[in-house]
Amino acid sequence: MSEYPLTRYALVPPLNEVPRCDAYIARYMVRLFITEMLAVASLEFPLTVFTGIENFTESLTTMVAMAYALSIWTYGPISGPQLHTGLSLILLFTRRLSYPYAIVSIVAQIVGAILGCGLAIVITQKYPDATHHYGLAKLPDGSSEWQAFLMEAIAIFMIVMMILATLDESRQGAWAVAHISLFPFMFAVSVIFTAPMIAAHSGIGLNPAMMIGAAIVNNYYKDVWIYVAGPIVGCVVAAIIYEMVISNAASTARLRHWFTDRNFNRHTNYKVLDGEVPDNKID
Predict the structure, then answer these.
(1) Which ranges of 168-223 would DSSP assign to H, the alpha helix?
(2) Which architecture, in CATH terms, is 23-250?
């Protein structure tokens, strides 16, 4: 029998486990890389195409949100999809993703951003120069670096809290019904909500991989740290608060196993396993 779940078609291997070195895993690693690359390229391409077009900010926010939704629906069964460097790190941090898969995903996201930005620049022939940079967030006039940093962190905090709630294995059934099918829509809504909120203060980065890729293509790195560090900090804070406080599974026993147990299982109720709560007290 195969160690991987059997269905009519080959499934994704367990992403929270360190992969074995075999042909099946090698093929999946290639699929994972291509999936994340294409997913992020499909986000960066429209962003770069419409950068600099006047009176298009609100429409661009909606379009990018829809691009996120389409990418999640299209590539979700293969890679998640992750689409975001901070999210890959959070999946690693919360023991949903092992480090080999996280590394491949993050590299693929940056390559995808380079591909999407570069392709858009070549097709539109809007080449970057000293005053024009495409696919990059720009610090608005009158906004400080730290204002932008905090706005990026807060916005991605809100988005990641929604993501973690969707992924929460302990969520009650009534709140988990069809949650995966609704996830692309909820993600789009969260982007449409947060992007205009921070636009005047940060210029809307939200995705470290996209900003890194666009910075490489434009050869322009001013203020890029804001759009990398801000979202990552927001992701980490969201993960800590959700996993340690908000989740129904949160407990000191789970926290202890999370950081010390090599075979940590997110589906195990560590409250009962370690005797913190009697089994008959669990719904």
Answers:
(1) 173-176, 179-202, 208-218
(2) Up-down Bundle (1.20)
